[in-house]
Write a structure and sequence with these properties.
By secondary structure, this protein is an all-alpha fold. It has one domain. The chain has helices at 2-35, 38-57, 69-86, 97-119, 131-155, 160-183, 198-223, 228-259, 274-296, and strands at 187-189, 193-197. The protein has a two-stranded antiparallel sheet.
């Protein structure tokens, strides 16, 4: 009885931590996304990427003594390069969409390639389990995420496109969790994440589609009338978001298992690290942003 009470108290404490952290993160995200100018928002996202890069450095090797600062410095230098490459400055009203598309396309290719890592895990670990390769994977994950989120902010300075992406990915997580817990029976990837199920994936896809339909309705009636093709493409995008969100989650689980760690970090009480919170987001960003740029480029201002 005493053990059960202690266990319940611990669960209550963890749940409280998770809720408090989630509320703080949500308020900070909304404030930064809607109140900061595009340039200062870019600086904010660069800071988040650097935190994620620090955590990724910890996933490169199971060796706890691996030097993280050189990797962090490399990512920082690339971020500075992105500011110049995309034309991000305090006075810029738009950025170079063509160059951003190239970065996003590289990210999309990586996430498609990562399917082969997952399909053959753990037998094919020798193909990717190398420090230099995992370090490169981090670049192909983090830099497209930075470019994509910044593009969304410049496309619509109000920040609503950024929030739409975050909410759609969160919808996948929420739907997958509740459907998986209550109806999940068929394991999705038992070797990587035993709790995930195919039923959870379908639940996440359904909730994401509902949220996408709401966003499309708001966009169509309040910002710009959309054609049938545009509406269809944006609704179909929910399937892609679900797919890549799951892939991103599984890839991070794969890397954490490879290093023998439960979480990517300890910065967020009750949640683990930053990467633990954005694993689905970083994977969904390239497809989401490329689709928005392709489908809505006439509705928003972007320099192509």
């Amino acid at each position: 009885m005493a053990v059960m009470m202690i266990s319940k108290l611990r669960m209550t404490k963890v749940l409280k931590q998770r809720v408090i952290t989630a509320v703080i993160l949500l308020v900070a995200l909304i404030a930064a996304t809607t109140q900061l100018t595009s340039f200062y928002f870019s600086l904010f996202i660069a800071g988040v990427v650097l935190v994620a890069a620090w955590e990724w450095a910890g996933l490169i090797s199971s060796d706890k003594n691996i030097a993280k600062f050189p990797y962090l410095a490399s990512i920082a230098a690339m971020l500075v390069g992105c500011f110049f490459l995309l034309g991000i400055s305090p006075d810029a009203q738009n950025i170079d969409g063509f160059r951003a598309s190239f970065i996003l396309f590289l990210g999309l290719l990586f996430w498609l390639l990562s399917l082969f890592f997952l399909a053959g895990y753990p037998e094919n670990s020798s193909l990717w389990n190398d420090e230099s390769k995992i370090a490169l994977m981090g670049v192909l994950v983090l830099m497209p995420t930075f470019a994509g989120v910044v593009v969304l902010k410049y496309l619509l300075p109000s920040g609503y496109l950024v929030l739409a992406l975050v909410i759609l990915v969160a919808a996948v997580d929420v739907g997958a969790y509740f459907v998986g817990v209550n109806f999940g029976t068929r394991k999705l990837a038992a070797n990587l994440s035993p709790k995930k199920s195919w039923e959870g994936v379908w639940g996440g896809a359904f909730v994401c589609l509902l949220v996408a339909a709401l966003f499309v309705w708001i966009l169509h009636h309040n910002l710009q009338p959309l054609s049938f093709i545009q509406i269809t493409a944006l609704l179909a995008l929910s399937v892609g978001i679900t797919f890549f969100s799951v892939v991103g989650d599984l890839i991070e689980s794969m890397l954490k298992r490879n290093c023998g760690v439960k979480d990517s970090g300890t910065m967020l009480p009750g949640h683990g690290g930053v990467l633990d919170r954005v694993d689905g987001l970083v994977a969904a960003t390239p497809l989401f942003v490329l689709t928005v740029m392709l489908v809505l480029d006439s509705e928003f201002q972007v320099s192509l």
